[in-house]
Fold:
Amino acid sequence: MTLLTWNHACTVGVRAMDDQHGILMDTMNELRLALVHGSGREPVSELLDRLIEFTRMHFSSEEQLMEQSSFPSLPEHRAEHLRLLGLLREAAHRLQHVVNVPMRPLLCQLRDGYLDHIEGLDQKYGPWLNQRGVY
Ligand SMILES: [Fe+2]
Ligand SMILES: [Fe+2]
Structure:
């Protein structure tokens, strides 16, 4: 599983959101390292909980900004946030309840989900917010 690297495609142009995306990626990378180093279920589970908590906070920050600026695609964006949170909860559930769960495919799925989201839907609110003075 490759490291998540910061690149231009990931920049949405709103400082606070870009900072939060950086923290999300750092946490994903920590998870990846924990797996590579063969850390046990406990530390991986703790990292995953931290990722879920931070993701929830990040999604609600984004939704608040979109709501305040009457962003037209908010319903579609919110639905995608819910889908991603579902994937995260499923990963956490499997980690806690399934013996010898293969975490790597789950993490790859999460990584791809985040990247697609940040490089796709998240790119769309940037210009809308910038035009309304939010940077
Ligand atoms: Fe985001
Ligand atoms: Fe988003």
Observations:
- The pocket of fe (ii) ion (ligand 1) is lined by residues 17, 21, 58, 62, 118, 122 (CB under 6 Å).
- The chain has a mean pLDDT of 90.
